Predict the structure of Nucleoside-diphosphate-sugar epimerase.
Amino acid sequence: MAHRALIVGVSGIVGSALAKTLLADGWQVWGLSRGRTPVPEGCHSLTADLTSAESVASALEGIDVDRVFFSVWARQENEKENIRVNGAMIRHVLEALGSKLEGGHVALVTGLKHYLGPFEHYGKSGAPTTPFREEQGRQPVDNFYYAQEDEVFAAAKKFHFTWSVHRPHTIIGFALGNAMNMGQTLAVYATLCKYTGQPFVFPGSKAQWQGISDMTDARLLASQLEWASTSENARNQDFNTVNGDVFRWQWMWERIAEYFDLTAAALPDEISPLEQRMDDAAQQWRKLAEHYNLKEADITKLASWWHTDADLGRPMEVFTDMSKSRKAGFTGYQSTLDAFTELFDKLKAENIIPR
């Protein structure tokens, strides 16, 4: 009998990639979201306000699944509110499903802020030594990832299911209207540079430019999620999730520039965040969209300047170790450069950026 999965956050980068992976492998898939963007073909769409226990319970009434995947968060004005809101969203879903989950599995996607702390915490106290390893544990700061984990752990004890936690680095994947989408943001930025003559300047820190980094393809994360939900070795475990290669941004920036027929600018003496330089970007993009008949003229649905600035502006080297996952049996690999170029090709094919 095919597994029956509920993906919470199905329209995001991770959720949509996971839905496609599971559907291709014969799973039955239900996707829970706010209903603002389409879900992958073949997925049963459910709509709810995740912050409302009543709305979630109503949406999930009669739904019988044995696997639940969470890849969802709602950005709030501070971390205490992040904890309150994002922890509650996990709790609402698990309480609504309740004893139906007995003997099943729940997987939670968080990220490397598990080791770094929330955005405003970056660089303010010591981060673990790179590469980050699962046994390094939590930082002594407020973090909504920890609140989400604790909701899963508590429900697992109450309803008798197994769990896994997955910690990707910055995710590369295709999803419109997503708040954390570096690959798509860089594609939009490069396109603007190409057609307006702006220099293609790296918007991050010297530490990121020179240090070792890695990233996570959404398709690889989807494969790890599927594996963990069916593997004895992955029960009640936390796993880092990255592509398996490492790079330095000073090298990757040149490769991205070459793809868009640009010349990579030298690293400036002072950090040059995108959010501070993109005042005219919305108007410029509307003109490009009209000229090339692009699918989306609203740049806010394509680019997330603040998130890319936060990731690339980190004042320390960030990359992770995959040994635990490898030893447990997950051996997936993805070239990060190929992940970028395949995303850029898809954005062209979908008429999101000019061909």
Observations:
- The CA atoms of residues 135 and 238 lie 9 Å apart.
- The chain has 13 helices and eleven strands.
- Residues 176-214+246-319+334-348 form one domain.
- The chain has two domains: 4-170+217-241, 176-214+246-319+334-348.
